[in-house]
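Handout, section B. The chain below has 276 residues.
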Amino acid sequence: MQGKKPGFTLIELLVVIAIIAILAAILFPVFAQAREKARAISCLSNLKQSSTATLMYTQDFDETFPLSLYMAFTPAPCVMTFYHEISPYQKNAQIMQCPSKPRAVDFVVGWGNVAAATGLPGLCVSSPPIQFLSYNFNYAVIENGSPSNIFGTDPDRAVKSLGSIPFPVETALISDGVPTIQPINRPPDYACGLFYSPIDARHTGVVNANFIDGHAKPVHAKLQTDNAGNGYTCAGLDGQVLRIYQVTDAGPYQGSQELWGIAHQRPDGTWYADNP
């Protein structure tokens, strides 16, 4: 008669469980980093496609960039935006959604807040429909236009052309981030008002961005904090809390909370961004 086989003792089971827990603690962050890296790569691909769509638009309209927003009247008064203008060239609304933060702003809800505050009508219908967005654009390149049927006449906000950008490789176009509507705990050097465009370093301290020449690349940034180490925040158009970052890479946007402005170079070789 065979004897009963000995089982695991309680101590042995606890040791095995402890080893599994240690391995999980080591490997789970690695897996999470790998997933985020894959999302960041997919996001960069989105931005490459959106830059291509924007450049296709400029070629169809005498090398001029789309307007940021303007009033349309067919079939009824509604507001067209940059996102509407390039949508037919993308034919996929998900291109404007970052996999790491696909619902960074509900644009329909957010525009409802803007309309309530300004008296503007609702958004125009687009094909494909636009609702959730993850990306913002450089308001110094994608301008209001002048005269504008929303903002009136302002020569400083005239439509921009490809030929008006002296350094297209260094001038940002679209990047991780969404518009703000109001401050919460704003930095002392950043107003966070309506339609400000802070970057969002959502890829582990990295902001993905594309540039006027069509290339896309990561831009490094750091969280901006007060003296107590608390991060500064603003409210997005739909009320979501947005953390405020500053660009750390050398170049025209270094130290800025936005990838805003057209790149310029001084005689001594230093860079700055402005909207001349």
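Note. The first strand starts at residue 69 and ends at 72. Compare this with the example in section A.
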